């Protein structure tokens, strides 16, 4: 929700006439994408036979991480690869669609706006996580 909040704040900076309440509705509706996929992921845990707790933690359906061989991927790339996912793409599309009444312009313009605000915030967050992972793993 922090990334979406930065999108809201960025919109205020560019002199939006909309109310914060309108943006909060968009944020809460958009976050439901991740809630739905979390329930689907949790339901998927019951259908697989996991041998270890590590296998459960590496269960990331709908992500690029799940398509690759985990044993050949450095640990610091696990989190970034798990963010390249179908839920994340749907999140961006839903956010762009829900921002239509609040931000003028085409769908691609709104996607660009999301990339400049939420995308950069997400990139900074991923960079911090990778940095910490590299420094605290031996």
Helix content: 55-70%
Distance between the termini: 32 Å
* Order of helix and strand elements from N to C terminus: HHHHHHH
Beta strands, count: 0
Q: What would you call the shape?
A: globular
Number of helices: 7
The portion of residues forming beta strands comes to under 5%
Q: Could you list the spans in which at least 5 consecutive residues all have pLDDT below 50?
A: none
Count up the domains: 1
In round numbers, the mean pLDDT is 85
Radius of gyration: 17 Å
Structural class: mainly alpha
Task: Tell me about the largest β-sheet.
Answer: none
Write the layout of secondary structure elements.
Elements: H1 2-13, H2 20-45, H3 53-57, H4 64-67, H5 78-83, H6 86-98, H7 107-136
Task: Describe it.
- With 138 residues, the protein is mainly α.
- It has one domain (2-136).
- Helix content is 70%, strand content 0%.
- It is built from 7 helices and no strands.
- The chain has helices at residues 2-13, 20-45, 53-57, 64-67, 78-83, 86-98, 107-136.
- α2 runs antiparallel to α6 (86-98) and α6 crosses α7 (107-136).
- The protein starts with a helix and ends with a helix.
- 12% of the residues are buried.
